[in-house]
Amino acid sequence: MARKAKAIRDFQQITPVWNVLFNLFAGIFAFMCVFPFIFVVIISLTDESVLASEGYRLIPSKWSLGAYQYIFESGDTLLRAYGVTIAVTVIGTILSLFMISLYSYAISRRNFRYRRFFSVFAILTMLFNGGIIPTYMIVAQLLGLKNSLWALILPLAMNAFYVMILRTFYATSVPDALVESGKIDGAGEFRIFFKIIVPLSLPGLATIGLFSTLGYWNDWFNALLYIDDPNLVPLQSMLMRIETSMQFIQQNSANSNISMAALQSLPQDTARMAMVVLATLPIIFAYPFFQRYFVQGLTLGAVKE
Amino acid sequence: MGNFFKNLNRNKVLLFMVLPGAIWFFFFSYLPLVGTIVAFKEYRFSRQGFWASIINSDWVGWDNFKFLFSTEDAFVITRNTLLYNIAFIALGLVFSVLMAIILSELVSRKMSKIYQTGMFLPYFLSWVIVGYFVFSFLSMDRGLLNQMLGWVGMEPVQWYSDPKYWPYILVLVNLWKMVGYNSVVYLAAIMGIDRSLYEAAMIDGANKWQQIRSITIPMLTPIITIMTLLAVGRIFYADFGLFYQVPRDSGTLYSVTNVIDTYVYRGLMTTGEIGMSAAAGLYQSIVGFTLVIVANYVVRRVDKDSSLF
Amino acid sequence: MQKGKKRFSIAITMLTAFSLILSACGGGGGGSSASGGEGDADNPVELIWYTIGTPQKDVDTVMAEVSKYTTEKIGATVTMKMIDWGDYQQKMQVLVASGEPMDIIFTSSGGFDYVQNARKGAFMELDSLLDEHGQDLKSTINPAFLEGSKVDGHNYAIPANKELPQQEVWRFNKTLVDEYGLDISSVRTLDSLEPLLKTAKEKSPDITPFAMDKNYVPYVPYDYVIQNLPMAVKLDTTDYKIVNILETPEMKEALTTMHKYYKAGYIAPEAATTGSTGDLMNSGKWLLDRAQTQPLADNSWSASYGYPVVSTPASDPIITNNSVQGSMMAISANSEYPEKAMQFLNLLNTDATLRNMVDSGIEGTHYKKTGDNRMENLPESKNYDMPSYSLGNNMLLYLNPNDPDNKWDEFEAFNESGTNSPILSFNFDPKNVSSELAAVQNVKEQFWSSLMTGTVDPETYLPQAIEKFNQAGLEKVMAEAQSQLDAWKAENGA
User: What is the dihedral of CA A97, A100, A101, A102, to 10 degrees?
Assistant: First the structure.
């Protein structure tokens, strides 16, 4: 049987020439996708002094670990930023999965009397957004979340778009009969949800979880608005601040007061690239895991259809 | 009235489930909505804060909109938003499907996995980081690209102040970031195609190309249609990070990098044109939402289960 | 349908009502606003101060110390919030628009734009406050600062007392000057540089005789209405006519000279595209460049490059809007204690103890005094490293070990030497021509750097640039500016 399957597969194969071409094509594109990261790693390992004369080289004439040394000696800023980002991402993803899945499950239930109201309630939020300033006032002034991790977590916790995706997922892949049978067994709604629905909808949850993890990990904007405390600045925002400050100095280069004062506080080129590398590393290690889950989710969904 | 409470009681558990989300929507989506009024006012600061400023600012009716549409800005940002999105959708589709088919046909599963992993990486990186990446190539005096131009004896190019290259750069960067992800989605769909279809085709003597053309692509069509329609629905919304971080907010490039989202942002954060910014935001919301609704309607006609609502 | 509409309007009403409640508890922070009289040593009020710069670890510690001092003096405590360089503009925009409580705001032409925000009502008008609580300040800082920083006839911020005029100088790499035996005493105009550049080029072909980056613009005796846009008024003007700088004979001549230098190889081929001359400065492979000076600048340049740099004037010292608005502190329009804030600004700009505490931190922790008005940083100062220019009167600062005794006298003398630009304190309001202005800006980016650095031949490119500018609407912008300037002149009787 196995042999036969193999034979069929072999028979299905493209010709060796095409196989080589396809490999080349996919290989080159895959390489292009990772190359910028490798390049930045190289820059971060270049000696600052040769950078000035020869620019970013693929093979610099002088290597150095100086940039990393600088970062680790310059204190715990980076470490703190890591901590903040990880905490926000973990808490945020769990919280938003919790809120989104409960909301979308409820509005996917046909016997929920207010499902239309709450569907529209969610959809309408996609129509208008009030803008940055009113949102700022709610978060910072009304809820008083300024300079707290919650200011980084709550604003991204819900998303009408994800609610709708997940609702569709529940509506199509969780049969009503299952819920009914649970009810007959005497289980409460919450019990049904956690014991029956959640395990069934793992692929969907994983997808939403991935989106929301990425959203939290890559967010810099909320930190720009709500975080003044240097101890609570997340990674992306830290990188962003270095960048905007550089630009500010360039724009105001005529004003020697500013450039003198500001330049002192900024890391050099190689050190900035080293920070980019360090900020990317956790993703490099974590994403293949995500990828597996994600692909599984997709494949499951595809098979079911 | 009594009926109302009876209903509440009967649905209390499900109500309890939507409660956290509903509260969130109220605070983070509905309360800030009042701010939209600014689009119809000439905003002036007032001592008592934002709401008081809104109330005390003069009504100017549609003036902010008139002004927005009388400048070239409105045209430029609409054109940029639409054209870029169309390019992203069209090219993204072709490349992703092509890549998915290639990956599915590779003889070595293992190599296919490795390639996928490589291609998937950019999707996980933030635009801040991508901005740094792009800078390492395009930096005027240090970038790799100018060095390469030097090797072939060409003059260095000032990438960040010459608009003519940016439509290509932005499309490329966007493809670079999204193709991996999308091809994995399509690949998953290809893997889900019933193998017996191919077997039957082979028995009929179809070669590989015929199989791809008459099985793989037709089987992919529904998901392609849906993904594309959803993207078309969001054609009025641009990827803020791509257009803000990657060109490093360079003023010279605005003619080709300014999209509605960046315009709204800059209006608020740099130039302080709060009224204009709100007007542009409202314009985007209304046109954008209409498009989402239309797209959703069409998706529903195509495949009821895949529609958003 | 009818019913639905009604329900919708009820929802809107409720939302509005709710937000009104919000505004009551959000913005005002209690009903005690505008009663600046309260607050004394026993019962101090809190002043919130937003300023620019990388947040420092010890800000709160230092401010606690500052507060002790100010509580005693004026009955107010100080909380300082620092916002990083690049974020300042954006963040202040949001904070001010949302009515975040604040009293004192750093503003300048480059960060949280002074004129624009004064016009939008972000700052409190200070005229009467200055008279009531700012008398010491008025008599301490150079009056030209307050006069020059008026917007539409009123003061909205207190400029920091520092170098007042702008003066251009030619800077020379002294090592090379000595090596080639050059005489720099007779240098003044662009043309007078030629023999020096020529010698340098002949003696060592591998250096860049005339260093510059893409922001370089040849000096001409005009003051620009908007920085870096080609509209300007001649410094010795009598008719206050705004001209296109590219059409002036002075600029034409300067550009021709620049192109001559460029062709002779005195200027780096990549000048029009280089962002900074930092690398050249580090390597010391340059003969001269042009820069803005201030007293004792030669010393600080030499110190930061690690080799001697000397300079000679390239222009007269001129007091312009840009020089006056370089660093200012405004009182927020929503300040609860505007009078206290004014008293604080008064103290900060006149009281050396307070000013130095804000600048250098706590004596004995961050710095130690080595004389009457001298100090030395201690290692701890790395946790409190502040940009001095943004924190008020610079001339009260204690001297660093390598400053000469007469540092501030030199500044005084320099400030006295400045002459006013004819359009000092005229601030163009671009509201009516903002779209033309954007188009003009685009044309500028295309032509400006290559023309100004001499990279292209002005014979062919200057007429082209002028035509492109006019197509983009420069003439309309100039006409608008002219009519505003005429109105301003009539009002100010200039």
Answer: 120
CB-defined contacts B:C, below 8 A = 104
Rounded Cα distance, B261 and C202, in Å: 55
Return the pLDDT at A261.
Answer: 53
Domain at B71-306, CATH from 3.40.50.2300, 1.20.140.10, 1.10.3720.10, 1.10.3210.10: 1.10.3720.10
pLDDT tens-digit map of C172-210: 999 999 999 999 998 999 999 999 999 999 998 888 999
CATH class of A76-304: mainly alpha
Neighbours of A240 (CB within 10 A): 25
Mean pLDDT (whole number) for B8-16: 84
- The distance of A74 to chain C (nearest Cα, Å) reads 11
Q: Please give, rounded to a whole number of angstroms, the shortest distance from the CA of C22 to a CA of chain A.
A: 7
Å between B293 CA and nearest CA of chain C = 20
Q: Delimit the domains of chain B by residue range.
A: 1-29, 39-70, 71-306
Q: Residue A189: which pLDDT band, with cuts at 50, 70 and 90?
A: confident
DSSP characters over C50-76: EEESPPPTTHHHHHHHHHHHHHHHHSE
Pairing of strands C76-83, C45-52: parallel
Cβ atoms of C274 and C214 within 8 Å: the answer is yes
Using a CB–CB cutoff of 8 Å, tell me whether A37 touches chain B: yes
Question: pLDDT exceeding 70 applies to what percent of chain C?
Answer: 92
Residue given tokens 């390469």 in the structure block: B148
B164 → chain C, closest CA residue = C446
Cross-chain Cβ contact A26/B277 below 8 Å: no
> pLDDT higher for B197 or B55?
B197
> What pLDDT is stored for residue B51 in this prediction?
67
- Token representation of residue C361: 């931190």
- Which helix (H) or strand (E) is B154 found in, with range? none
Q: pLDDT at residue A52 above 80?
A: no
pLDDT at A211: 84
Given its phi and psi angles, is residue C284 left (phi above 0), alpha (psi -120 to 50 degrees) or beta? left
pLDDT band at B307 (very low <50, low <70, confident <90, very high): low
CB-based contact A248 C327, cutoff 8 Å: no
Query: Hey, are the CB atoms on A56 and B179 less than 8 Å from each other?
Result: no
Touching check for A221 and chain C: CB below 8 Å? no
Q: Do B141 and C22 touch (CB under 8 A)?
A: no
Q: Which chain B residues are within 8 Å of A109, Cβ to Cβ?
A: 14
Separation in Å, CA A182 to CA A179, A195, B192, C471: 5, 10, 30, 75
| Chains with ≥3 CB–CB distances under 8 Å to B | A, C
Domain ranges of chain C: 29-165+320-425
Fold annotation for C29-165+320-425: D-Maltodextrin-Binding Protein; domain 2 (3.40.190)
- How sure is the predictor about C399, in pLDDT bands with cuts at 50, 70 and 90? very high
Average predicted confidence (pLDDT) for chain B: 85
Cα dist from A87 to A38, A238, B82, C37, whole Å: 28, 16, 38, 46
Tell me if chain C has a CB within 8 Å of the CB of A111: no
- Whose CA is closest to C453, among C214, C169, C288? C214
Percentage of residues in chain C with pLDDT exceeding 90?
55
Distance from CA of C20 to the nearest CA of B (A): 7
Res. A256 pLDDT band, cuts 50 70 90: low
Q: Is A89 on the interface with B (CB under 8 A)?
A: no
How high is the mean pLDDT of chain A?
82
